[in-house]
Structure formats: C-alpha cells, structure tokens
Amino acid sequence: MSASAIGKHTLWNILGQVLPILVAIIAIPLLVQRLGMDRYGFLTLVWVLVGYVGIFDFGVGRAMTRVVAERLGANDIEGAERNARAALSFLFGMGLVLGLGMLLLSKQILGALSVPAEMHQEALHALQLLSASVPLVMLTSGYRGYLEAHRKFAVLNLVRAVMGIFTYAAPLIATAFSPSLVSIVASVLITRLIANFAHRWACQKCDAAALHFELPSIARLKPMLTLGGWMTVSNIISPLMGSLDRLLIAGLVSVGMIGMYATAFDTISKVLIVAYSLTGALFPVFAGLQQADEVQENYRYAIKAMLLLVWPILFIASLFAKPIFNIWMGAEFATHAAPAMQILAIGLFFNCMAQVPAMLIHSRGDPKWMAALHLVEMPVYLVLIYVCTSEWGVLGTAAAWATRTTLDLVALHWIVLRRISPDSVPFRHMISIGVAAAVLVASLFIHLPTLHLFVLGSVSILIFVFCMWNFILSSAEREFIHNILLRKILRKFACGK
C-alpha cells in the first residue's frame, strides 16, 4: 500500500472518530441534566456492554477480514463470498445465543450492580430490552470486517461517524419524550438496528453476491477459527480489562459515579485517536521491514514521534482538568471527575507509548506474546483494581488502571528487546519517557489560578520542545522537520502573494 493511501486511510479513520466527539461535547451535559447521575451512569454502562459483547466471536470477525482479503487477492470472488457468508452466519448464531443468555441472566447481572432501589425494575426491563441488540452488534462487526477486506475505508468510517453521532444524539432525543431507562435503551437498540442495515447496504455495494445466511460448514470456519485463536485471547481479555473499571465502580461504589468516571475517561482517552492513527499508518511499514537495523531505526523514530504527539496534549489536559470540567459540567462534577482525569492522563501516556511496541509485535506476525501477556496481567489487574476501588473509589480505580498501563509498557518493551529487536530504545529515550511521566505526575499537585496555568503550560511546552529538539531528535530528524515546516511556510507565503 502506498504512503498516500496509508495517509488517506488514516485521515478517514480520524474523521470517523473525531466527528462524534463534537456531538458528545454538547450532548453529555444535557444528558446528565435530563437523566440525573444515576440514569446517566447506567447509560454509560449500556455503552460498555454493547461495545464489549462484539468480542465474543472466537476471532472470526477479524480472521474473516484476512481470509476474504486473501480470496479477493487471488481473484476468487465466489470463494470470498462463501467464506463471508459462513462467518456472518456464525456471528449471527453466536449473537442469538449471547442475547438469549443476557435475557435469562438479566436479574443476576442487575444484582451485581449498585442500582438505586427506585430504579431497579426500570433497569431490569432496560437490560432485557438491551439483549435484543446483541445479535445486531455481532452481525455488524462481521459486516465491518467484510468492508475492511474490500478496503472500503471511506464508506466504513462515514457510517461509523454517523453511528457515533447517534450514539449520543439518539438518547438525547429519547429524553425529550421520556427520561426512563427503557426509552433510552430503546434508542440504543434503534441505533444498532440502523447501523446494521447501513453496514449491510455498504457491503452490498461491493459488487458482491447477496450476503444471505446459510448453515456454515466446518471446513470454511476452521481456518478462521484457527487464525483467530490467539487473537481471541487478546480480543476478550484486553477489552475486559478496559471495561472492568466501570463494572467494578457500578458494583462497589454506585451507578451514579460511573458517569463521572466514564466522562473523565472518555474525554482524556480521545488522545488514543492520535496514537492509533500513527501506529495504523506505521504498521504496513514495519510489516515490510526485513533488516534488523531498519527495524531498530524505525522503532526509535516511532517512539519519538509518539512522545512528541501525545505528551503535550495530555499535559495540557491534566493541567486544565478542573477548569475544563467546571465550565463544561459544573463544579460538583469537576470535584470528582477532574482528579480522576489527571490520574488517567498518566495512564494514557504509558498506554499511548505502549502502542508502538504492540504494533511492532503484531507487525512481525506473532500475536501469541500479546495474548500471553494479557493472560498474566488479567488476574493481577483484577486484584489490584478491586482493592483500589474498594478503598479509594473512582480515584483508586483510575490509579489501578494507570498502574496496569505502566506495567504493560514495560512488559511490551521487554518483549521487543528480548525477542524482536535488541537495543531498539537508547537509554536517553527511556529517560525522556520517565521524565515526561514525572511531569504529568507533578501536575496532580498544581493548584493555580487559570491565568497562571496558561503561563505554566506555555513555558512547559516550550521547554519540552527545546529538550526534544536538542537532546532526543537526531540531526537527520531535525533537518527533516525543518524542511517540512520551511516548505509549508513558503507555500503559504506564495499563496498569500
């Protein structure tokens, strides 16, 4: 794939995630105002459940993308369609089983949550209704994989952007008629139904045969199940560790506190758009590298690029967390959400930096190391987050999550240095990552007027850029950046004339 194609696909990916953010900024305060913290917290839990259920596909969704793409590459259109139909039928069947399980266990699921007594019956009916969305979510993930195999990134991210907007807009519209959880979940169900039809329509525009359901044969499913084996471990455990924080808050603290924590997490975690876009663009580059010295050189570039891109965003977000939430959500909300977001900013920094070694490990075609790491991490993280949440509430939850991402970065770098590319990260780069993290930790204890924060933030960013330019970037990298900036300035000057 060409560099321009990589850039174009990266741009579509960013747009598909950025547009819903703009809607969320407006919708979230209105949802909190209309629903109250307890119902809004339940809504965020619904979003978690809908997002998580799609991973129980035994890796078939992701494996289907590769198998269908291989068939298309061999010009075997009929073979691609047969494999796609087998995978989609399997996913839909699994969705029916999981949906039925959620329906039958809805009382047990609700019993594990700290839902106020007056909301109990309402929440139970909402969970039962939510179970109908499970087959739609599973089937939509299959359609998405089919579109990725056909490289229909533009239409895929257009649909994703529209559905992302309706994720926030649909519940907001529903509150105009009723603030009950049943009406809110009904809006979520309608959104998933529309998303399913939109993805299917996009698939049928690929000049392919109708993707009707058929009884999947073992022969067609076996390659996808085999390929998805190790990926299934990571696909289940990694999102579970990502959503475990909110589930434990619902069980150990209160449903209302989920809203504050989830809003803080969802706000600061948007920096991952930058991280995923960078690693997504670099993935095919690393996959094509053969020489060890090329891998080392590009790995160092990726580490420095990630540091340059994400640290300033996270530092400013941490520094201005309380003023931002005061203006956006009010002083009471800011009291709980701002400190949590500052702690999460530290974890997000390590999480973003960990995307680089994770990308290298996947690009070398060996996902078993990621799966093994997640298997080791899961029980440790479960104990850690349970203890921290029980003792310190949402701040303990945030601290446990940040601790896990820190250990995750250390472990992934160790795998890279021991198994893939020794001496990939010079000592000064490790020091720079440590210093950058220490400054984020220091921002937790800074309490100054907003004007003083602007001054401190500006000076800190200037110092960061100075240190990176003089001590971290190589002369070739400085020259490359300088030439890019110079060309842009000259181009603007020429256009102005």
TrEMBL record:
Membrane topology: Multi-pass membrane protein
Domain of life: Bacteria
UniProt subcellular location: Cell membrane
Transmembrane segments: 12-32, 44-65, 86-106, 126-146, 176-195, 247-265, 271-289, 301-321, 341-362, 429-448, 454-473
Keyword Transferase: no
Alphabetized UniProt keyword annotations: Cell membrane, Membrane, Transmembrane, Transmembrane helix
Primary localization: membrane
Pfam families reported in the protein's UniProt record: Polysacc_synt_3 (PF13440)
PANTHER family for this protein: PSMA PROTEIN, PST FAMILY PREDICTED COLANIC ACID TRANSPORTER
Protein name: Oligosaccharide flippase family protein
Source species of the chain: Uliginosibacterium flavum
